[in-house]
Specification:
- By secondary structure, the chain is α/β, with parallel strands linked by helices.
- The protein has a domain of about 240 residues: 3-Layer(aba) Sandwich (Leucine Aminopeptidase, subunit E, domain 1), CATH 3.40.220.10.
- The protein is built from 10 helices and 10 strands.
- The strands form 3 sheets. A 6-stranded mixed β-sheet has the order 2-8-7-4-6-5, with helices on both faces. It has a two-stranded parallel sheet with strand order 1-3.
- A hairpin with a 7-residue loop joins strand 5 and strand 6.
- Helix 1 packs antiparallel against helix 3, helix 2 packs across helix 10 and helix 7 packs across helix 8.
């Protein structure tokens, strides 16, 4: 029995007692128990929580996160090594395809919605849901406290503006901090304001890193997915903004990671960051001709970000996130559907 399974039953019992929802049955299967635990955490409103529940949750999440695997930022090579790029920032910028919640770095960037409370949809695969799930209940509580203070200052209908970052602790995640930011939404055509807003997202996150002594940061692909910013143009703006900022702020960042989820985003970033002076990768030094930078075509995987406001428990606003479907992710969608059915069968 794993470390997380040893405290799974205790955590599940505490969450059921804490929840305002009625649980019809308690599953016996460990995977179904984990689904129910995550679901109860996802739907929980930002209301006070007992220290005992937090203690059990923290023990479970630390064990669970260790079992999922932790990736140190030092294990992620920069584009100077992976692509052979040889420019001013080739030893600072990196591309990494993987789960951002497993990264051990100073800060990760969350593609948030304007409510800033995370995704309330049970077991949804968006980045906002994943970050809040594996950080723990405390993250939503801190976000709510910050939003409450802002509503006191700006009015009860305040929502977080586009490109204004919010810094929180990371709690049970392996990173130190989470920077939440709302990206621009493309409602019709792309225009200069939307592009400037997206550039501001990257610049202001880096400003926040500089001002708080955070020297390594991982960016998700802000505003792509259901926010409808074209992936190619979003990546161009991201790379240009980061490089311009690094030019103007030398010595503040040790590593800036572009964390990609979609295969096509990986190819886009590799194409953009391989442009300019190159040096051959170490394993290709024997070759004096050009080398293939991009792998074979592969189907896209799940995209994320976005949300529509709904009412949560206690009158709090919540946001239901959505994902984009493609033929290549039918297997993933089936797993998601199983989780949702299990959740709805258990709760009423």
């Amino acid at each position: 029995m794993s470390d997380s399974e040893q405290c799974l039953d205790q955590l599940l019992g505490s969450l059921i007692s804490d929840s305002t929802h009625s649980v019809q049955r308690v599953p016996s299967d460990s995977e179904e128990k984990r689904i129910l635990v995550r679901s109860l955490m996802n739907i929980r409103a930002p209301v006070p929580v007992s220290p005992d529940l937090l203690r059990i949750q923290d023990r479970y999440l630390r064990a669970r996160n260790a079992e999922r695997g932790i990736v140190g930022e030092k294990d992620i090579q920069t584009v100077g090594d992976t692509l052979g790029t040889d420019d001013d920032h080739s030893d600072t910028i990196a591309i990494w395809q993987g789960d951002i919640t497993t990264l051990e770095c100073d800060a990760i960037v969350n593609a948030a919605n304007s409510g800033m409370l995370g995704c309330f949809q049970p077991c949804h695969a968006c980045i906002d849901n994943c970050i809040h799930t594996f950080a723990g209940i405390q993250l939503r509580l801190e976000c709510d406290a910050k939003m409450h203070a802002l509503r006191q200052e700006h009015g009860s209908d305040y929502e977080q503006p586009t490109a204004v970052p919010m810094l929180t602790d990371a709690y049970n995640l392996p990173c130190r901090k989470v920077i939440h930011i709302v990206g621009p939404i493309v409602h019709s055509e792309l225009d200069d304001k939307l592009e400037n807003d997206l550039a501001d997202c990257y610049v202001r996150v880096l400003d926040m890193c500089r001002d708080n002594g955070l020297r390594t940061v991982a960016f998700c692909c802000i505003s792509t997915g259901v926010f409808r910013f074209p992936n190619q143009r979003a990546a161009e703006i991201a790379v240009r903004s980061v490089k311009d900022w690094l030019d103007d702020n030398k010595g503040y960042m040790d590593k800036v990671i572009f964390n990609v989820f979609l295969e096509k985003d990986r190819r886009i970033y590799e194409g953009l960051l391989s442009q300019g002076p190159r040096r051959l990768p170490r394993d290709d030094l024997r070759r004096d001709e050009g080398y293939e930078l991009l792998g074979p075509e592969a189907g896209p995987r799940e995209g994320y970000t976005g949300g529509e406001p709904e009412e949560a428990e206690g009158g709090h606003r919540q946001f239901r996130c959505h994902s984009r479907r493609s033929r290549s992710r039918r297997q993933h969608q089936r797993r998601t559907d199983i989780r949702r059915r299990a959740f709805h069968e258990i709760l009423r």
